[in-house]
Design goal:
By secondary structure, the protein is an alpha/beta fold. It has helices spanning 2-15, 24-42, 91-98, 117-128; strands at 69-73, 79-81, 84-86, 105-111, 133-137. The protein has a five-stranded mixed β-sheet with strand order 3-2-1-4-5, with helices on one face. The longest helix is centred in the first third of the chain and has 19 residues, at 24-42. The radius of gyration is 31 Å and the shape is rod-shaped. The chain starts with a helix and ends in a 5-residue tail after the last strand.
């Protein structure tokens, strides 16, 4: 009797496709997606300009328009326009080169808190004299 049942069972199994669940490809895909999202989230922090020690301000707010140019002044009073070193006297000419026709330019000024007030004012004065240039001063929140 058991032989007959066994043959019947084998005959039924021969007609049905064999279902084997292989989870390795699924795990590979999940691991690849996880790796992609972790690596892409690391690059979400967008830093413009050079790292400087910004002063704090209570009234500081995030700008709604994206900065198109960044001027950084480090503790040694070295001036950088979009991470390229320039002199204080060159700020006006170099910013004018970045202007596009019929479009405003937003310039963010990142000045280290130890920079002399006169140097920052000199840069700000040059920026104010350029038409269609809007200036913003970067600070950090408390």
């Amino acid at each position: 009797m058991s032989r007959r049942l066994r043959r019947r069972y084998e005959a039924e199994m021969a007609n049905q496709p064999l279902e084997i669940k292989n989870l390795l490809p699924l795990m590979d895909v999940v691991f690849a997606l996880l790796t992609f999202f972790v690596l892409s989230s690391l690059f979400l922090n967008r830093i413009e300009g050079l790292p400087v020690d910004l002063p704090k301000a209570q009234s500081g707010a995030m700008q709604k328009t994206p900065a198109r140019a960044t001027i950084s002044v480090n503790e040694k009073t070295e001036v950088f326009l979009n991470k390229q070193k320039i002199g204080i006297a060159e700020v006006s000419d170099r910013v004018k080169q970045l202007l596009e026709p019929n479009q405003d330019l937003v310039v963010v000024l990142n000045a280290d808190r130890t920079v002399q007030h006169g140097d920052v004012v000199q840069i700000m004065d040059q920026l104010r004299q350029i038409p269609r240039v809007k200036m913003a001063i970067a600070t950090k929140n408390n």
